[in-house]
């Protein structure tokens, strides 16, 4: 039993090494530079070993997308836990989203197709669904005086996401305004949308 556990742990370590190597390559040279051979060279494996864990580059991109969404979900949960008022929770979550995008630029670009092809999946990843649900549930908490339909909550969520993702994309693809101005725009947008939720 112990040897089975050890083998499983070694497999998991190898899988993690492959994903870490892929992300290192991308952070150094961009997504266009990523290949199975480059990953193998980076961690001194043969290419066939990489294929034992991932059938193709798309499989690696999918796992990295999943990892990014899981990291973002954890950031959102931590941000929400800082406040009890749903308005403050929303503000904190979207600021966490902004921060995540600039701390993890290459992952963010992959997750949302900014300046790269995002990983195409037949169904939305569970982690991404959990992020959206967390935000939508918080939006619904604000609208308790006039319980909204799912469509209205969804529309408010996409209003947030469209504006904040758009501002992030402008800054990732080409230099936008300075950081102080970006923070003013971000906070104005968040507060404005929160006010519109209460209207």
From TrEMBL:
It comes from the Bacteria. Residues 12-72 form the HTH tetR-type domain. It holds the Pfam family TetR_N. Residues 35-54 bind DNA. Keywords: DNA-binding, Transcription, Transcription regulation. The keyword Zinc does not apply. InterPro entries: Homeodomain-like_sf (IPR009057), HTH-type_Tx_Regulator (IPR050624), HTH_TetR (IPR001647), MT1864/Rv1816-like_C (IPR025996), Tet_transcr_reg_TetR-rel_C_sf (IPR036271). GO terms for molecular function: DNA binding. This is Transcriptional regulator, TetR family. The lineage of its organism: Bacteria, Pseudomonadati, Bacteroidota, Sphingobacteriia, Sphingobacteriales.
């Amino acid at each position: 039993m112990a040897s089975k556990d050890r083998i499983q742990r070694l497999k998991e370590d190898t899988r993690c090494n492959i994903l870490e190597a892929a992300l290192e390559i991308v952070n150094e040279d961009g997504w266009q530079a990523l290949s199975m051979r480059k990953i193998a060279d980076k961690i001194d494996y043969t290419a066939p070993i990489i294929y034992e864990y991932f059938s193709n580059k798309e499989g690696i991109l999918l796992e990295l997308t999943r990892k990014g969404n899981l990291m973002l979900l954890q950031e959102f949960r931590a941000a929400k836990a800082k406040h009890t008022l749903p308005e403050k929770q929303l503000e904190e979550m979207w600021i966490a989203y902004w921060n995540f995008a600039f701390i993890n630029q290459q992952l963010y670009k992959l997750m949302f197709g900014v300046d790269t092809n995002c990983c195409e999946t037949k169904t939305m990843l569970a982690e991404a669904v959990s992020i959206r649900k967390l935000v939508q549930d918080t939006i619904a908490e604000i609208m308790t005086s006039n319980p909204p339909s799912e469509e209205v909550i969804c529309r408010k969520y996409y209003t947030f996401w469209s504006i904040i993702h758009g501002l992030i994309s402008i800054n990732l693809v080409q230099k936008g305004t300075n950081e102080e101005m970006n923070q003013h725009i971000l906070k104005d947008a968040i507060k404005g949308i929160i006010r519109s939720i209460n209207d």
